[in-house]
Specification:
The protein is mainly beta. The chain has two helices and eleven strands, in the order E-H-E-E-E-E-H-E-E-E-E-E-E. A six-stranded mixed beta sheet has the order 3-2-1-9-10-11, with helices on one face. A hairpin with a 2-residue loop joins strand 4 and strand 5. The structure holds manganese (II) ion. Pfam families: Metallophos_2 (PF12850).
């Protein structure tokens, strides 16, 4: 079993990122930060963290997107604004990200931008938005901010969402077959 930490859209709230990284240090096989940190790409906090650029990031040294393979899982990571990820009345618009993810042969797609947490299977891939730790939107904004842990077992993907206090939000857990 492998675990991955996924966090996004801190918008300058460096403290929650440091706090969350400390909390999961040594317990995850990969750490993904999905954009809109408003920090420098070379900030110490990003050592060992896979990052991408968000629409509010000024440092052009952040990558636009990345594909990463860890433990036989291929991840496609991007913020979402470059692929029109924002949907007005739905959770997110996955169509353009999906085309890019197909080219990357991705199993799991990681994004942010909408500040709405969720995990869904679309076109045989698991799309995960951890939400924003700091400026949450959508029906679960009252939680006060979220991030996600993905567990990959031989048979399943399990996505668990956590609050800023690192407490599990049980109602949001998503389990899907691999
Ligand atoms: Mn944002």
């Amino acid at each position: 079993m492998a675990k991955f930490l996924i966090i996004s859209d801190i918008h300058g709230d460096r403290k929650i990122l440091v706090d969350t990284l400390n909390k999961w240090h040594g317990q995850v096989e990969g750490i993904f930060y999905n954009g809109d940190s408003e920090l420098s790409a070379t900030d110490d906090v990003f050592a060992g963290v896979s990052t991408v650029i968000g629409n509010m990031d000024n440092d052009i040294d952040f990558a636009e997107a990345r594909s990463t393979v860890i433990d036989n899982v291929t991840f496609f990571q991007t913020h979402g604004h470059l692929y029109n990820a924002t949907a007005i009345l739905q959770w997110a618009n996955l169509k353009l990200m999906n085309e890019e993810a197909n080219d990357a042969h991705a199993d799991v797609v990681l994004f942010g931008h909408t500040h709405k947490e969720g995990a869904v299977v679309f076109d045989h891939k698991l799309f995960i938005n951890p939400g924003s730790t700091t400026l949450p939107k959508g029906p679960h904004a009252n939680i006060g901010g979220t991030y996600a842990i993905l567990e990959v077992t031989a048979e399943q993907y399990i996505v668990t969402f956590y609050s800023r206090q690192h407490e599990v939000i049980p109602d949001l857990t998503v389990k899907v077959a691999r």
